[in-house]
């Protein structure tokens, strides 16, 4: 099954001039990684508590697809800074992996504030997303490459939640349809877990 991750190479080419400019300004890969993580946490808190306590306008949830796109760009930029501008460090590798997991978890769980969302399924999805990234990293520990196999990678999940935020902003509240989609994403995440484990084992053999 195709994954949004497969578009990463073309997206990186578009971002390379920006990346080169940031490198020239002395911006490090780690600074970009931390900025993406902090931005995700702050947006998640604003959405969650704003929805529950302040009754913010649904239009505020348009920030989700916008930020998901920006964060995807930042994730590409920090990787290119590390690879192409000799900024790769052990600290950066830890920040990158932990930053992605923390950012994803915060943004996904912010949707628990929406009326009609199935919170148990949302929590299960979030846990499986963390597990899928953990398996990707464990692959390196057993001698394989970092696994990004789909069909539900980081970019695919970001696309789903971006669309969910967009739909809520324009007046389409979560309900039976969102529950069914959450179940579908969970199934795809289970397939992703199997694919990444199988690919890693096959690679070391």
Automatic annotation (TrEMBL):
<dbReference type="GO" id="GO:0008654">
    <property type="term" value="P:phospholipid biosynthetic process"/>
</dbReference>
<dbReference type="InterPro" id="IPR000462">
    <property type="entry name" value="CDP-OH_P_trans"/>
</dbReference>
<dbReference type="GO" id="GO:0016020">
    <property type="term" value="C:membrane"/>
</dbReference>
<keyword id="KW-0808">Transferase</keyword>
<feature type="transmembrane region" description="Helical">
    <location>
        <begin position="21"/>
        <end position="49"/>
    </location>
</feature>
<feature type="transmembrane region" description="Helical">
    <location>
        <begin position="55"/>
        <end position="74"/>
    </location>
</feature>
<keyword id="KW-0812">Transmembrane</keyword>
<keyword id="KW-0472">Membrane</keyword>
<dbReference type="Pfam" id="PF01066">
    <property type="entry name" value="CDP-OH_P_transf"/>
</dbReference>
<keyword id="KW-1133">Transmembrane helix</keyword>
<dbReference type="InterPro" id="IPR043130">
    <property type="entry name" value="CDP-OH_PTrfase_TM_dom"/>
</dbReference>
<feature type="transmembrane region" description="Helical">
    <location>
        <begin position="161"/>
        <end position="194"/>
    </location>
</feature>
<dbReference type="GO" id="GO:0016780">
    <property type="term" value="F:phosphotransferase activity, for other substituted phosphate groups"/>
</dbReference>
<protein>
    <submittedName>
        <fullName>CDP-alcohol phosphatidyltransferase family protein</fullName>
    </submittedName>
</protein>
<feature type="transmembrane region" description="Helical">
    <location>
        <begin position="119"/>
        <end position="140"/>
    </location>
</feature>
């Amino acid at each position: 099954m195709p994954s949004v991750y497969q578009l990463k190479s073309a997206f990186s080419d578009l971002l390379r001039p920006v990346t080169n400019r940031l490198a020239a300004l002395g911006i490090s890969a780690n600074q970009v990684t931390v900025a993406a993580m902090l931005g995700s946490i702050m947006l998640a808190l604003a959405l969650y508590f704003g929805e529950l306590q302040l009754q913010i306008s649904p239009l505020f949830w348009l920030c989700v697809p916008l930020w998901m796109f920006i964060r995807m760009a930042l994730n590409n930029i920090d990787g290119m800074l590390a690879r192409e501008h000799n900024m790769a460090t052990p600290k950066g590798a830890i920040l990158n992996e932990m930053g992605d997991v923390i950012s994803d978890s915060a943004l996904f769980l912010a949707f628990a504030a929406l009326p009609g969302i199935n919170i148990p399924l949302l929590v299960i999805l979030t846990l499986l997303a963390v597990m899928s990234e953990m398996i990707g990293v464990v692959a390196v520990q057993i001698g394989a490459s970092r696994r990004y196999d789909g069909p539900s990678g980081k970019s695919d999940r970001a696309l789903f939640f971006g669309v969910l935020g967009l739909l809520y902003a324009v007046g389409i509240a979560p309900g039976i349809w969102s529950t069914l989609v959450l179940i579908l994403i969970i199934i795809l995440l289970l397939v992703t877990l199997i694919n990444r484990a199988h690919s890693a084992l096959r690679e070391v053999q």
